[in-house]
Write a structure and sequence with these properties.
It is built from no helices and 11 strands. By secondary structure, the protein is mainly beta. Strands 2, 4, 5, 6, 9, 10 and 11 form a 7-stranded mixed sheet that branches. The model has no long low-confidence stretch (mean pLDDT 95).
């Protein structure tokens, strides 16, 4: 099982980025997919999650700016990040699990993880 996160980079405040997470080697379509982020010295933080037939969930600080989407047929999910701020700078990780769980905001709820993609927002 491999989750491949991509799309990170360096952007200026106010710019946009789209992250992608492609899952391969799965024998199932994950019902819970998520994005977390982490900065040095801090715990991994929930950003967004979605699942088959479920509305996306977001952490408060990204509501109205980030959009979670998915392509179930491709086992791929995305994070469209708009109006980026310096405080969004982090390594972003994608995650998945077989079944939806109400504790989706906890990183311990997820079984599969991507390698991380760096997002830097700076002028």
């Amino acid at each position: 099982v491999q989750l491949q996160a991509s799309g990170g980079g360096w952007v200026r405040p106010g710019d946009s980025l789209r992250l992608s997470c492609a899952a391969s080697g799965l024998t199932f379509s994950p019902s819970a997919m998520a994005w977390f982020r982490q900065t040095p010295g801090k715990e991994r933080e929930f950003v967004a999650a979605g699942g088959s037939g479920r509305a996306a969930r977001y952490t408060e600080s990204v509501k109205g700016r980030f959009i979670f989407s998915k392509d179930i047929g491709k086992n791929t999910w995305y994070l469209q990040m708009n109006s980026l701020k310096p405080e969004d700078t982090a390594t972003y990780y994608c995650a998945a699990r077989r079944v939806w769980i109400t504790t989706y905001a906890k990183d311990t709820a997820f079984d599969y993880w991507g390698q991380g993609t760096q997002v830097t927002v700076s002028s």
